[in-house]
Specification:
Elements (H helix, E strand, L loop, with lengths): L1 E7 L3 H11 L5 E4 L18 H7 L1 H4 L1 H10 L3 E3 L2 E7 L3 E6 L2 E12 L3 E3 L12 E3 H11 L7 E4 L2 H12 L6 E4 L3 H7 L3 H4 L3 H16 L4 E3 L2 E7 L3 E8 L2 E6 L3 E4 L2 E3 L2 H5 L4 E4 L4 E4 L11 E3 L9 H18 L8 H14 L3 H8 L3 H6 L5 E3 L4 E2 H10 L4 H8 L12 H12 L20 H5 L8
Parallel strand pairs: 1-2, 1-6, 2-3, 6-19, 8-15, 9-10, 9-15, 10-11
Antiparallel strand pairs: 4-5, 5-6, 7-16, 12-13, 13-14, 17-18, 20-21
Helix pairs in contact: 1-4, 1-11, 6-9, 7-13, 11-12, 15-17
């Protein structure tokens, strides 16, 4: 199969980009791992009833416009499809319905969205400790809500999920906010600008007020989180205002922010740059164009800006593609300028959120040596610290010495934290350490699936 544009991901950015690109009479193929369009934020939107749409909140309901517009376009859409390689040319290797195949594309736009940041703490690998995003998936997919769950971490999703649980009649046992109090002081400088997008601030306060009215304990400024148990989490321990607290629970939902999903871009040759403000790697790009000709990125996979911004930047990228191909864009000059201005106003909240909800590097430095850092390969923080003290290593050197980052996730979970630990011990900047060298396949692939790949005839 040959297409003009292959879009990876059917979240807000991918849907908006593909919808406008299809209106240009380009042959567009959208591939996505999920069974229906929407991405994580609008997951299973088409299957929800009115009650569920109301309970999940107005931001979730807003996804309908994107989904309906996407469905109306004459484009190729392959749900349940995973991209495991993007080779030069572009030859894109896919896994669909258990069989591998290849697609030729003149251009590739990676709209893979964000992934939750894995943040090591004592007991974080115990069964029953789940990312808040995983809890939200269960809620949207199956309507499942954990009884007596504790939510802990930092970031807006923590309060959104707690509020959604409350709306479903299953109030959390507690919300443990690990945002250091010093971050509130640091974020004050960004508050005046953030008021340009004040609806986000109001929304966050509304979630907190609803939880307080319902009697859900909020431990703000908590520290020293630990999950305790033998074969399953049985309790949560943390410090708050000079006291140690223990809460019994069999479900701990944690959240430490989200970071761009960069694996496919890095594998395709796009350089990654470390953001010291956001403590993650981001693809090098300008208005969606990467340094690799024909390779583009939009949405949270470029930088974390949220669902609204993802859709707007998807549309703006479609306009750039149209101008590049000398086609008449869907958005005229005035509409594009209005959308860019709207995006700029909406983005005014980001410096405030990034200053406030940045994960606590001091907490990471204070974790014990026996805390796991790389759970794929059972590499502890102590092992990484010891190697960093003995050798002047970059990230790939750390991988060679310890196998950190060599597991099925290829360092997507442990990479940012490993880089921070390495840099702190060696007194270096994270950007000096490089990134784990990506390798195909980007996701686990069985030999049988690989063998199903059609044989290519020699040129």
């Amino acid at each position: 199969m040959q297409v003009d544009l292959l879009v990876v991901g059917a979240g807000p950015a991918g849907m908006a980009l593909a919808t406008d690109a299809a209106r240009l009479d380009l042959s567009v193929l959208v591939v996505d791992e999920q069974p229906a369009p929407g991405g994580q934020i609008y997951r299973r939107w088409e299957q929800q009833g009115d009650d569920a749409l109301t309970l999940l909140g107005p931001d979730y309901r807003r996804g309908g416009e994107l989904v309906h517009a996407f469905r109306r376009q004459g484009l190729h859409y392959w749900p349940g499809t995973r991209v495991w390689a993007i080779e030069p040319g572009f030859e894109v290797a896919l896994l669909r319905e258990g069989e591998a195949s290849r697609v030729q594309a003149d251009r590739v736009a990676v709209c893979a969205g964000a992934m939750e940041r894995a943040w090591p703490f004592s007991g974080w690998t115990l069964p029953g400790v789940v990312n808040a995003g995983g809890g939200q998936i269960l809620l949207k997919e199956q309507g499942l809500v954990a009884e007596g769950a504790v939510l802990a971490g930092c970031g807006p999703l923590l309060y959104l999920l707690a509020w959604q649980y409350l709306r479903h009649g299953r109030a959390p046992k507690a919300v443990v906010d690990l945002t250091p109090l010093r971050h509130y002081r640091r974020a004050l400088g960004a508050l005046p600008k953030a008021l340009r997008a004040g609806h986000y601030l109001w929304q966050g306060l509304r979630y907190q007020w609803a939880l307080k009215r319902a009697g859900v304990p909020l431990y703000q400024g908590a520290h020293g989180l630990a999950a305790e148990g033998d074969d399953w989490v049985q309790s949560v321990r943390f410090g708050h205002r000079g006291r140690q607290h223990h809460i019994e629970t069999d479900t701990l939902l944690t959240h430490f922010g989200v970071i761009p999903h960069t694996a496919l871009l890095a594998g395709a040759g796009c350089p990654l740059d470390w953001s010291p403000q956001r403590l993650c790697w981001e693809p090098r790009q300008q208005a969606g164009r990467t340094p690799v000709p024909g390779l583009y990125v939009a949405g949270d996979g470029a930088a974390i800006l949220g669902a609204r911004q993802a859709a707007w930047h998807g549309r703006l990228l479609a306009r750039e593609l149209a101008l590049e191909l000398k086609l008449k864009p869907v958005l005229n000059n005035e509409e594009a300028a209005q959308l860019q201005a709207q995006a700029a106003r909406d983005a005014a909240i980001r410096p405030f959120l990034e200053a406030l909800y940045r994960p606590d590097e001091r907490a990471l430095a204070g974790e014990s040596d026996d805390t796991l850092l790389c759970r794929c390969e059972n590499v502890t923080l102590g092992r990484v610290r010891a190697l960093a003290g003995e050798h002047r290593l970059d990230l790939n050197g750390l991988k060679a010495f310890s196998r950190c980052g060599m597991g099925p996730c290829q360092g997507r979970q442990c990479g940012p934290q490993a880089a921070m630990v390495l840099a702190a011990v060696q007194g270096r900047a994270v950007n000096e350490l490089g990134v784990f060298t990506p390798r195909w396949p980007a996701a686990p692939l069985t030999l049988a699936q690989l063998a199903s790949l059609p044989e290519q005839k020699p040129d």
